[in-house]
Amino acid sequence: MKALGLDGFIVTNPSNLLYLSQFDGLDGDGCLVITPQQVTLITDARYQEALEASLPKTVNLEITRDYYDVAHQVLADRGYQRVGFETSASYALYRKLAALFGDKLVPETGVIEKLREVKDTNEVAILRRSTQLASKGFEALMSYAKVGVTERQVSNWLNNWMLEHGAQKPSFDTIVASGFRSALPHGSATDKQLAEGEVVTVDFGYYVDGYTSDVTRTFALGDPGAELRKVYATVHEAQERMFQVIKPGANGQQVDSAGRDYIADESYGKYYNHGSGHGIGLDIHEGPNFGPRWRSNVITENNVMTVEPGIYLPTKGGVRIEDDLLITKDGNERLTTANRDLIVL
């Protein structure tokens, strides 16, 4: 608070509320008011009994339907002058806060998100379980995927397997893109049937105990041909080169360049059209990030990151390999255990 020059801070982002309160039932219904003297969680009576049983004694609980009027009163009682709010708030919420706080309202971006980037021991353990379950899901999928089934059937099968084996829910619509459609980095599953000689890209993430994995694998149904085999080998090597430079103190641009420069040297540079990775945790996309513009994103011990180079050849097909890494004291540990080599079914 002192470093930000604030007398109070209002937290409204649902994931940040979960992170700070350790209560997963709010779903954005309320706000958290932080001052140097105390922390106050403001929500309505639907959550009162559960919160009274679980909320730390250091957190004051206010039950009301007028979340922001009460937040204003809490801060007014302390003679506030500068009140921070999260810029992720909707415009309607901003207008509500502006009407209450006037020119004392100060926009702040990424304050809690920055804290969330560094995982504690419990968070790392959960993310390890989440990523290992996703890896097992992919391995199980290899017994189902075959010529003739549709992309949508593959997506549904994987979703069902994950839910039956302990996942809470997908963190995004599972991507299954086969054949020419695998050249679409975010190709949603369709009723297209998988065919002989095609590559199939599957990108998936699932929540376990509130924290999500994010994994991508590309496999083939029969021989995909020399060109796509070379593309796969290039992506595989690019990811290996990224692994080698990922350690505390490296920045997002350095990591990205380690893979992107190799892909360019292999004459595929123009076919790599997205960033190289991002943090994961309570949300599927967190900081820090790997990419050409992310020089300011410096990696820290206990970040959990994805590394996801890809090459996409229009009308022919594409390859992406994505793994989840824990940043360790001296380097990194790959949490994803699924096979990274090209699987040909």
Describe this entry's structure for a reader.
InterPro entries: Creatin/AminoP/Spt16_N, Creatinase/aminopeptidase-like, Creatinase_N, Pept_M24, Peptidase_M24B. This is Aminopeptidase P family protein. The chain is an alpha+beta fold. It folds into 2 domains: 8-116, 3-Layer(aba) Sandwich (Creatine Amidinohydrolase, Chain A, domain 1), CATH 3.40.350.10; 119-334, Creatine Amidinohydrolase, CATH 3.90.230. Helix content is 32%, strand content 23%. It has helices at 14-21, 48-54, 67-76, 91-101, 111-117, 121-141, 151-164, 226-245, 252-265, and strands at residues 8-11, 31-34, 39-43, 59-63, 83-86, 105-108, 169-170, 175-178, 198-204, 206-208, 211-212, 215-221, 277-279, 286-290, 304-307, 310-313, 317-320, 323-327, 332-334. The strands form 6 sheets. A 6-stranded mixed β-sheet has the order 4-3-2-1-5-6, sandwiched between helices. Strands 7-10-11 form a 3-stranded antiparallel β-sheet. Strands 8-9-12 form a 3-stranded antiparallel β-sheet, with helices on one face. The longest helix has 21 residues, at 121-141. It starts with 7 loop residues before the first strand and ends in an 11-residue tail after the last strand. The mean pLDDT is 96.
Keywords:
alpha+beta, Creatine Amidinohydrolase, 6-stranded mixed beta sheet, 3-stranded antiparallel beta sheet, 9 helices, Creatinase_N, Aminopeptidase P family protein, aminopeptidase
Concise structural overview:
It is built from 9 helices and 19 strands. It is of the alpha+beta class and 345 residues long. The termini are far apart.
CATH superfamily of the largest domain: Creatinase/methionine aminopeptidase superfamily
Distance between the termini: 56 Å
Q: Can you identify the CATH class of the largest domain? A: Alpha Beta
Major sheet details: 6 strands, mixed
Chain-averaged pLDDT = 96
Give the SSE string. EHEEHEHEHEHHHEEEEEEHHEEEEEEE
CATH fold naming of the largest domain: Creatine Amidinohydrolase
Q: Specify the overall morphology.
A: elongated
Helix-and-strand structural type: alpha+beta
Q: Return residue spans where pLDDT drops below 50 for at least 5 consecutive residues.
A: none
Number of domains: 2
Radius of gyration: 23 Å
Strand order of the largest sheet: 4-3-2-1-5-6
Count up the helices: 9
Query: How many runs of DSSP E, i.e. beta strands?
Result: 19
Helix content: 25-40%
InterPro entries: Creatin/AminoP/Spt16_N (IPR029149), Creatinase/aminopeptidase-like (IPR036005), Creatinase_N (IPR000587), Pept_M24 (IPR000994), Peptidase_M24B (IPR050659)
Keywords: Aminopeptidase, Hydrolase, Protease
GO molecular function: aminopeptidase activity
Protein name: Aminopeptidase P family protein
